[in-house]
Amino acid sequence: MSDYVDPDYGQRYPVEMEFEWRTDVVPLGIREQVNECWDRPKRHWYIDWAGLSSASRLRLIEMFNRARGRGNTFLWKDRDDYLCTAEAITTDGAAATYQLCKTYYPAETEKWTEDKTAIMPAGVYAPVATHSVDGAQTEVAATPGADEYTLDDATGIMTWSAGNKPSSGVLTVTFQFYYRVRWTFDKFKDSQFAPGWWRMAQSGPHLIEVVT
Fold first, then answer.
1. Is residue 63 one of the residues assigned to a domain?
2. Which residues of 39-67 are buried (b: 16+ CB within 10 A; e: fewer)?
3. What is the pLDDT of residues 104-128, one digit of tens each?
4. Average per-residue pLDDT in the chain?
5. How many domains does the chain have?
6. Which residues pair with 177 in a beta bridge?
7. Torsions phi, psi of 102, nearest 5?
8. Where are the beta strands (DSSP E) in 48-118?
9. Percent over 70 (pLDDT), the chain
10. H or E element: which one contains 66?
11. Staple 19 to which of 41, 129, 182, 184, CB 3.0 to 4.6 Å?
């Protein structure tokens, strides 16, 4: 399943977030060896679905059943983290393809960069790419197209045409993206607390990021 979810569906406040790292700690006598397994955190979303109208409830059940519980992933817009503004990608003058990415906490020592592989299509938000050499802007592609570049929404890979291949410099890209997620349970349970109003009865995380 790769449906685009209604971007404003269900994100009622409060929304709790978890950032999960994976670390293996191996005892070595009185010492220990710490192995960092991941180079970026995985996200969990706890959404407040404690007050759902009948229409919203049916939409939520549809999403759950289309995904077959935990069986399939789908795309989710985090309305607090869906925009990448002016991400700088170094170009070497030889490559014609570049991966869209976003750097988190760029001013910090422990920053990290994530490849973005579920890009909002141009019909929803047109990406803007600016290429500069030695600080001078030399090319602007306001929207992806065969004459300048093509953008694969499913992989986040930009492929530039031969005549517009970026020379050595910096490619600055602004775009919007989704997260690929799955449910964390296979049984949907809710309760009706007033005529036409429902609350979800699940405990634990509702959505978890799937890194591809």
1. yes
2. eebebbbbbebeebeeebbebbeebbeeb
3. 998 888 889 999 999 998 888 888 8
4. 85
5. 2
6. 119
7. -140, 135
8. 52-53, 74-76, 83-92, 97-99, 101-104, 112-115
9. 86
10. helix 54-66
11. 41
